[in-house]
Amino acid sequence: MALFGSNKKTTKSSKKIRPTVIRTQNVAKELISIAKSNEVSVNTIDFNILESQTYTRVNNGDKEADWEEVAEENLSEIEDKGSFLDKNFQIKQMYEIEIFSKTDNDPYSDFNLAVGANATKCKVYLNIKEGSKVSFSPRFEEDLLILINKSKVRANILINIFDEMLSDVISKIVAHVRVEESAVYNKSETHLIAKAYEPTPTTNDALILHYDKKDTVDEKGKIDYANRGFIQSVHKDELLIEYIKIKEGKPGRNCRGEFMEPKEPIEENTPTFTTDDTIKIIDSDKSIEYRAVENGYIALDGNLYTIKSEIDIGEISFKSTGSISAGIDSDVNISVKETDSVKDAVGTGMVVEVSEIDIDGNVGSNAKVTAHKATIGGQTHKTAIITADNLNINVHKGKAYGKEIHISRLEHGEVDGEMVEISQAIGGHIRAKEIQIEVCGSYVNATASRLIEIKKLQGSENVFTIDPLLKKSAQEGLNENQSKITELDNAVENIKKEILKYKKLVKDNQATFNDVKKRLIHYKKNGVKMPASFVKQYKQFQKVQEHLVTIKKEFEIKNDQLNLLTTKTASFQDNIFDSRIINRDRWVGFNEIIFKLVDPPLELSFKPEEGSADKIFSIVEVDDGEYKIKAVKE
Fold first, then answer.
1. Residue 346, class by beta-carbon neighbours within 10 Å (0-12 exposed, 13-18 middle, 19+ buried)?
2. Which of 620, 67, 426 is nearest to 631 (CA)?
3. What is the SS3 assignment for 579?
4. Closest Cα to residue 259, out of 124, 123, 84?
5. Exposed (0-12), middle (13-18) or buried (19+): which is 620, by Cβ within 10 Å?
6. DSSP letter for each residue of 296-354
7. Residue 152's closest CA among 136, 130, 169, 175?
8. What are the 10-residue block averages of pLDDT along the chain, 634 residues in total?
């Protein structure tokens, strides 16, 4: 909001000017002229409005009509929207003012008012600044109107027009000052004091490519130059393109009386492209929307926009495509054709996120591939990360995460899934619900929660582990369960002690209680007033008995909860006795079998002898609370 003027306290000049009466349409200009001619600062002079006159006329095209004065009492009659929005209608005001030097005894020197307006000058506001001070006087209401009108005419704002709300604003301010007597404004106040006819702006046409405005910034808010938007993934019903139609503006008139004619709309972005049935068109009065009918990525084939789901590319690299982050639910399927063994089909540091991806070649260092389904025909670098529900890798050296994972050759890589099948393992770490290895070499660390099966064992220094808490969620669940058990165990023990304490209290005072009870019954029967001490004793003992009943119930509830959680702890290893480690071949070299129990927390180890024909191993309870790893029948 622009502020036009205020009656701030200013430093007075010692030079005084002769009071001068002037008739003008531009008060601000005359004040500057008088100050300059008298060589004083404009801040040292003031003025009074002696008279104001309003004139109107309606021109006939280029032919100007004569101005006609409108009496003040008839001003409300010209406030007709039809007249004000007629571009041939004109209005102006002339003011007769008296200009004079400011004095030191201004009662409103600390009452800091300012009149401001919005950009179009169609709304005018009165601002009372923070820290303003003013005292009430019989003339305050009249003086306030004078102060406001002076600020308005100084800003070329018409007075007594468009300001029907001004009287209410003045009444509100006067009422506040009258109550306070000496009012101090601890915070600024703003009031609407005039409102004319706001024009409706013209709207030029525009073509907005929403699909091309997706962020390419990283988690730290910096521009990710590797993600250049090689493909733009879209989802069903997503707004892709929007054409904003032209809209002619409507004229207005501001509080200065100026007619505000809208500009002619410019039309220069009319769509010239076409679409197919993968994009629906919604045509309305204001715009044309182009929305996706299905998931995929948007493509421009010549002049035709379409949604596709499959794309074949030679390689994914910083130089050629940059990272591709379409999203795993985008229905975008990519086939990467580079097969050269000395090159990377997915280059260094590239991030790929699609629904399905088929990579014929290698995945480079620090690359990340995420999909529902992924196939890698080459090998993965030791720093590459592959994540997919359904995952097939030829040679794996990096990290792989998924549900169903098949690896032709594991070379010291990491695998974490649910069902893992490996044709040949030469070192590496495997974690899964079930693990099957066709040919197991050396230095393989395999951990499963249910089954590990080796078809052919050719190496040693392998560790095969059954751990019911393999998954992080299971371990967290157990830890939370154990924490609750400890808390409940302490609570049950404390309640048990309290029960014993109150039982003893009841037992030790039972005879006294019975005696008091008999006496009270006797008193009541004979209409004798019961002694207050007896009544107090009786009620105290009753409270002890009631509390004992309450804590017994609480003990039962807590104890049931404890038993339930203890049972739940046991459930974390329910299937461990059905879990198996199977070697269909003879044992070669040094290998270790480990079974981990939850309750009791034990880790049992067994090292099969070289050449042993024992194939299937399980954990067996040989005695109450005593467990061993033994060879069992299938």
1. buried
2. 620
3. coil
4. 84
5. middle
6. EEEEEETTEEEEE-EEEES-B-TTTT--EE--TTS--EEEE----TTSEEE-TT-EEE-
7. 169
8. 52 73 94 93 92 92 89 76 84 94 88 93 95 93 95 94 93 93 93 94 94 64 63 92 95 94 93 95 95 93 94 92 90 94 93 95 96 96 96 97 96 95 96 96 94 95 89 52 72 82 78 71 68 71 80 82 64 70 93 87 90 90 84 84
Is the peptide bond prior to 601 cis by the omega test (within 30 degrees of 0)? no
Of 148, 204, 207, 152, residue with least CA distance to 173: 148
Indicate the SS3 state at residue 46: strand
Q: At what angle do helices 140-154 and 27-37 cross, to 10 degrees?
A: 90
Strands 580-583 and 324-325: unpaired
For residue 354, CA distances in Å to 111, 228, 298, 309, 323 come to 67, 15, 14, 10, 11
Coil, strand, or helix at residue 372? strand
∠ Cα 603 609 610 (to 5°): 135
The number of C-alpha atoms within 13 Å of 35 and in the hemisphere containing its C-beta is 18
